[in-house]
Design a protein that fits this description.
alpha/beta, Rossmann fold, Dimethylsulfoxide Reductase, domain 2, Barwin-like endoglucanases, 3 domains, 7-stranded mixed sheet, 6-stranded mixed sheet, 30% helix, 17% strand, binds iron/sulfur cluster
Length: 715
Amino acid sequence: MRETVTSTHCPYCALQCGMNLTPAADGRSVEVSERADFPVNRGALCGKGRTAPAVLSSAVRLTSPLVRSAAGTLEPASWEEALDRIAQGIGGARAEHGADAVGVFGGGGLTNEKAYALGKFARVVLGTSQIDYNGRFCMSSAAAAGGRAFGLDRGLPFPLEDIPRTGCVILVGSNPAETMPPALRYFTELKENGGTLIVVDPRRTRTAEQADLHLAPRPGTDLALALGLLHLVVAEGLTDEEYIRERTAGWEDTRAAAMAHWPEYVERITGVPVPQLRKAVRLFCEPEHAMVLTARGPEQQAKGTDTVSAWINLALATGRPGRPLSGYGCLTGQGNGQGGREHGQKADQLPGYRKLTDPAARAHVAQVWGVDPDSLPGPGRSAYELLDALGTDIRALLLMGSNPVVSAPRAAHVEERIRSLDFLAVCDVVLSETAELADVVLPVTQWAEETGTTTSLEGRVLLRRRAISPPAGVRSDLEVLHELAARLGGEGSPEKRFPADPEEVFEELRRASAGGPADYSGITYRRLAEENGVFWPCPSPAEPAEPADPSEPAEAAGAAVHPGTPRLFLDRFATEDGRARFVPVSHRAVAEEPDEEYPVLLTTGRVVAQYQSGAQTRRVDELNAAAPGPFVELHPRLAQRLGAAEGDPVAVVSRRGRAVAPARITTAIRPDTVFMPFHWAGEGRANTLTNPALDPTSRMPEFKACAVRLEAVRP
Ligand code: SF4
């Protein structure tokens, strides 16, 4: 039998590494091999991507729907029974309490087609405004700050290949050595080419170890750090006055805010010595080209939008954004965190990155959906606010591709809210901690068993291809929505408007996005298969000239095909007047400062061998061997005060709860800070402790800093 090799992409992070898959002899799994033609990772994969097939054939894979029995246990059931039960649960809540009593919670790992269909399902079939997704917890602050500065949010406005050719990169709160290891080569090549890398992180991470300069501010003070750097840029006459005059607006207020943050004051706030600030400014301003890249560190704060704005201001004042090999970008984390926020599963957005409050956007999308614009609900609650309302205003929830019992802030409270629902339906591949609480669990297909598109951190739209058939008993998320639309949609065959075929959904998404900020209308599955992805915006070509032979497709007849847009803003920014906006911001403290009772700051993050809530990666033996459980990283001085030795159980207590995990003692962290990875449930669940204080603009919770105390745990 001839082996079929399928070129596709990893199911995990936003780098979306290319890989080849060959069906294994058992037909139930695939073997991963190098795909050298995809330029982003050039064949390299991290351990997560390499072992991703293990989840396809995992013994704990769900292959039958589960329905909660009268005895309270989850029992196997037929698809008909399970779908009918969901229709009853959701339909009952809607009939009794109104459309907004039904919530929908999506995920940043869902393909563009699924994110699009889920948003449409919520607004057209359920009529609810209560939809959001876990990508809100990922990069919403960068999206908000990018939007207000440049008029458009696309994680990176340039391809990763530009990084090695710039002169200096300031990498703020990002640890690609662990979160996306194949991306590290862009930074090592930068250094090999004579460029410099500055890493801003409270921990000396594996990435920080590679840096020419590591700035280690207290968690939650990087806004002040950026202001201090901008102060020095101004004081030393290093601003790009011509660029500021020609391409920006609002400089004077931002300049004044920066001048109030003199270096010694910033040193007191951040703990970063003034000589290091001066060195950073020199390294950043000397080269012709330079970049600022942010990630979850500055973004996951109750002032995340302003913190990112402070870094964008630094980039603008030095004339970087919208110039070749320079600029500002955000390294998005989740696999389809970028596409997920563009196509309608976010509380305030319609497909094409349109605003739900914009009458023209509503009219356009309603016309594609074949509904009255007035029937579309308005914006709903953000992710944490939605979870916090479960069991009160929201009585039933449909959850797809997310595990908030582990990944949401103040997780014990969120778990209690989920338990108080009248009805919960979860679509997942394994029985996650959230699925365990459901009334109905639907087993769905995985990445290698289905086709769909994702949009990487570069804004590159990619085609993930099906390589093997799913196991019997498993259906795709699109099939689930198709079936539920038939049951819940009322008159007029609504299921026909929810096709289960991904390419059909994508064709509709193209029309819905046409003319919007994230315009995909010029992208087709055929192009994605032939090209190595297409960068949005990619509008459809202007009306093609009539082909001489009407049977010939317009493209073949010479109609112009938009090439996509790898680099944004080179001529103008996406604001009305084409100018970028400075946004004046000032330092403010974290929502919960340390005090006598809770004297230490906790910050959270990821480790190399696990991914997000661990729902998939904790099912892979090789990854579990490398990263078997949570830990508390603390400085030797703190450990000594506590009387804790390496490996001793340590309790971390915040105002929201208590978590226990073994001590990992290292000088790589500040003495006033502890770190916990957030991939695990149970007593080591880091998010039991985190603070749901929200950013006023992005509604991002403050995952990166909360006050805790440590307690020794005696056996
Ligand atoms: Fe997959 Fe990300 Fe690892 Fe690449 S870096 S293999 S996309 S998890």
